[in-house]
Amino acid sequence: MEENKQNQDIEFIKEKVKERPLNRRKLLKRTIVTASMAVIFGLIACFTFLVLEPVFTNLLYPQEETQQVELKEESINEEMRPEDMILEEETESEAPAIQQTVVEKVEIEISDYQRLYRLMYALVQQASNSMVTVTGVVTDMDWFDNPYENQGQASGLIVAENGKELLILTELATVKQADSVKTTFSDGTQAAAQLKGADEETGLAIVSVALEEIEETTRESITTAVLGGSGSSLLASPVIAAGRPLGRSASVVYGMVTSTDTWASLADQNVRILTTDMTGNSNASGVLLNLSGQVVGIIRPGSSKSSTKETVLSAYGTADLRKIIEKLSNGQEIAHMGIIGTDVPQEVSEELGVPIGAYVTGIRMDSPAMQAGIQSGDVIVKLGTVEIASFSDYQEAMMNLSPDTAVTVVVMRQGQDAYQEMPIDVILGR
Fold it and tell me: What value does the mean pLDDT take over residues 390-396?
């Protein structure tokens, strides 16, 4: 009997323990819930990081904000002319006194000329702190697949600083196709630069250099250029060509302005040209300085059509470039319509009945103006909401517009009997 009991115990031990049946639906539900919670947690974490990362970055590594560049015109210091002098205590009852002019003979020695030129060169040295040499480097391969570099150089002018970058005006041709751009400051130090903005019409560009890339000693020595006026009052005034007027760095030429009444008729803008009696290189670049050290002209890039290396230096007046430099310095593109024009003189308007406005003398091929149907001989009297009474009004209004925007141009077009008003919709280019 005891043996039977042991056999029963053995049989009990041999009994199989059945596994609990698997609930696939419940397992799938738990898996989906777990995965969904993981995705939601990941999305919340990513969103939190994106929102808070800039905040903590600014707190730990504060950066200066980029400031908008705004150039102010500096007046030219001029001496009072004799014909402008007025006697303060002159009255009607008093008879004009007879004045006797005594001409005193003054002897000038060689040392006076030496001192004069030393003083003018001191202005150049002071201005050199706001000038750099811009080098565009193009990398290419020769016939044997060996790499080589081509370098083009032009003078650059420090026009502004926006808190993060140093902004330099230079020639577009030097940096347009360059694989890399570097700037060399007056103390010989170099820094990498980037193309920030360009204007095909004037052939000018703005390159930027990060302030953190410039050595501290160099930052303390460089200065921003002072832009002076460039009107007709400059005629017969002495000027200094600095930068690269002879095609090489740190060259200097002294002379005077011989003409101020010539204008470069560019698309959507007219720029005054200052001609001089100075001879320079056909690859000249740089600036014209007045005797107050102000920059009154930017030597015209590629203006010489001569096959010889020598040419008479001419420059764009800085007063007419001010708005262009501002837009390029702020990284803004310049709107393009393709109008070449001029003012309508008052006497022409009275005699021939031509409306006052911006007279269209030409249209650029395939420009937005041509595609919209604007014609030579039209007179623009309104651009958007701005009334246009001169071509300078048209230039200023265009500078306040952006590319790829639609604008209504109101023109007066000559009909059989009289001028007729025509609104034309134009999509501005760049």
Answer: 95
